[in-house]
Write a structure and sequence with these properties.
Distance between the termini: 98 Å
Radius of gyration: 26 Å
Number of helices: 9
Shape: elongated
Helix content: 55-70%
Number of strands: 5
Oligomer: single chain
Strand order of the largest sheet: 2-1-5-4-3
């Protein structure tokens, strides 16, 4: 008996490709703190990893207003930018909170202006999937095909999983960005503080390093000695003062 196993093989390959994509995205975004940099990494990895997808873009909204775009090809950035008009697959996905599919843009009636511009750029199919990031930022990831009837149910499944995973990763990026900014503010405050600022000045003089690096040296000493940062700074300043007095 001859059994046709080609379809399961194709489905298995699609699952493996999607899993590889999600792993690569996690590796590429796990340490990033800049949101725009993360978006660019997201669209480039997706474009390279998903067969049949020629370009990828991301549309972001913050508090209901356009908050930037990312495009794997700069020529197509305008397709993702809501400042060029809100009538687009991305905005439909965001508004309706559901995946939007157009396998062939020829004769597509939903976004006439956007569709004309897309076809002029060589885009003939699109999937837009909504991405929930956090309470302030939402968006849509947009997969573009260079030929009609290329996008399949497997692409829709990939887009759905990608949108879910990307939302989690981008939320983490924004959280790390906020934490980094707060740490920077704390560092600036510490550098202005009397004894800590004096200790940082001492380390800068001794090592010829910038203030931020000197503060990290001070922090490392506090961690190693398991005592508060301010106490380490006081000890260092006292030691240097005694040396000067002798």
């Amino acid at each position: 008996m001859n059994l046709d196993t080609r379809e399961p093989a194709v489905q298995s390959l699609g699952v493996l490709e999607t899993a590889a994509l999600l792993r690569e995205l996690t590796a590429g975004l796990i340490a990033l703190t800049d949101f725009d940099e993360a978006l660019l990494a997201l669209v480039r990895v997706t474009r390279d990893a998903v067969a049949g997808v020629r370009w990828c873009g991301f549309t972001a909204l913050r508090a209901g207003e356009p908050a930037g775009v990312a495009a794997s090809d700069g020529r197509l950035a305008g397709l993702d930018d809501l400042r060029h008009g809100p009538d687009s697959p991305a905005m439909s996905a965001i508004r309706r909170r559901e995946m939007i599919l157009a396998v062939d843009l020829a004769g597509e009636p939903r976004w006439p202006v956007w569709t004309a511009r897309a076809r002029d750029l060589g885009v003939h199919g699109v999937i837009s999937a909504p991405v929930d990031i956090d309470d302030q930022v939402i968006g849509a990831i947009n997969l573009y095909a260079g030929s009609p009837d290329v996008l399949t149910p497997q692409h829709q499944l990939t887009a759905m999983l990608l949108a879910e995973h990307a939302g989690l990763l981008l939320a983490a990026v924004r959280d790390r960005g906020r934490q980094t900014a707060l740490a920077g503010e704390r560092d600036a405050s510490l550098l202005q503080e009397g004894v800590v600022g004096q200790a940082v000045g001492v380390i800068m003089t001794q090592r010829g390093c910038p203030p931020v690096e000197a503060l990290e040296v001070l922090r490392a000493a506090a961690t190693s000695l398991d005592i508060p940062l301010r106490e380490v700074a006081e000890r260092l300043v006292r030691t240097v003062s005694r040396q000067r007095d002798t």
